[in-house]
Amino acid sequence: ELPPRVRIHEVGARDGLQNEKATVPTEVKAEFIRRLAAAGLTTIEATSFVHPKWVPQLADAEALFPQISGIEGVDLPVLVPNERGLDRALELGARRIAVFGSATETFSQKNLNRSVAESLTMFEPVIARAKAGKVHVRGYLSMCFGDPWEGAVPVHQVVGVAKALLDLGCDELSLGDTIGVATPGHVQALLAALNEAGVPTDALGVHFHDTYGQALSNTLAALQHGVTTVDASAGGLGGCPYAKSATGNLATEDLVWMLDGLGIETGVDLAELTATSVWLAEQLGRPSPSRTVRALSHQ
Ligand code: HMG
Ligand code: MG
């Protein structure tokens, strides 16, 4: 049985733009986020308060956030790896943050310069301070299915780090297929193992990258399991600069096309969203990789 409604967690402005070679002007990012909101998206991940040398594409977080923080009816989560990042986000009035851990040691080192255990120690005060200030905390967990350096990732290893992040106080957990290698059976096996370990499905979201064209199939498998939070990126923008072979996220338009067809509510206007992705593609100077954007536009 499928859920009547899905909450789309839009990551294009963060996961998408962090991976663009070109630096997108702050005003274009702000306009992109305003247009995503106008298209009906209500959770729009805005940027990251990480080290500017690690992700130069998002180094303008301080300039961007005040330009969008007044948009009505929209949650604007931001990525925060450590207390320095939290200070920067709170200073600007952020009400939702996301920490980001890894199920594998290699990616943890490459993305955070820390072992998995050290990263959890780094997150602990971040989550505690956020919760004390009634700031919502999402936990990302990367490499939940496969890792470019370590290969297939055992389900029990993912469950261990997932539980640790939830035990630290994360309000929700997003299961990341960072390099897009998951297939539907693997998705259902991981969700079942998490449930068996005491993690309720309603604390879980899914975050698929579309490297092997499996993102929609994986999403449907997750919906059948009861998941109702799905991450996607407008136009299929995205990747991760610290994971080789990561390509774009599941395109929000492809997701909305499927959910509309299934009669599952999202609140998103597909025509308006597509127009936004076509506009952004013009700014970036290359067409959107989303099949739905291509089918619905003349780009
Ligand atoms: P580090 O070099 O170990 O940092 O990097 P450090 O703690 O040793 O500090 C070194 C210097 O950096 C200090 O300055 C700090 O103040 C400064 P100094 O005293 O030397 O002048 N610093 C900062 N400055 C600004 N903002 C900060 C900050 N933190 C320290 N927040 C660090 C550790 C975590 C900072 C670094 O590894 C980092 O920024 N990593 C971010 C990587 C990233 O953003 N990756 C992409 C997001 S994850 C992703 O895309 C996956 C996801 O989509 C899910 C999926 O698909 O799986 C979420
Ligand atoms: Mg990602």
TrEMBL record:
Keyword set includes Metal-binding: yes
Keyword Metal-binding found: yes
GO biological process: ketone body biosynthetic process; L-leucine catabolic process
Molecular functions per Gene Ontology: hydroxymethylglutaryl-CoA lyase activity; metal ion binding
Keywords carried by this UniProt record: Lyase, Metal-binding
InterPro entries: Aldolase_TIM, HMGL, PYR_CT
Record-linked Pfam families: HMGL-like (PF00682)
CDD domains, per database record: DRE_TIM_HMGL
PANTHER family: HYDROXYMETHYLGLUTARYL-COA LYASE
Similarity comment text for this entry: Belongs to the HMG-CoA lyase family.
Protein name per its UniProtKB record: Hydroxymethylglutaryl-CoA lyase
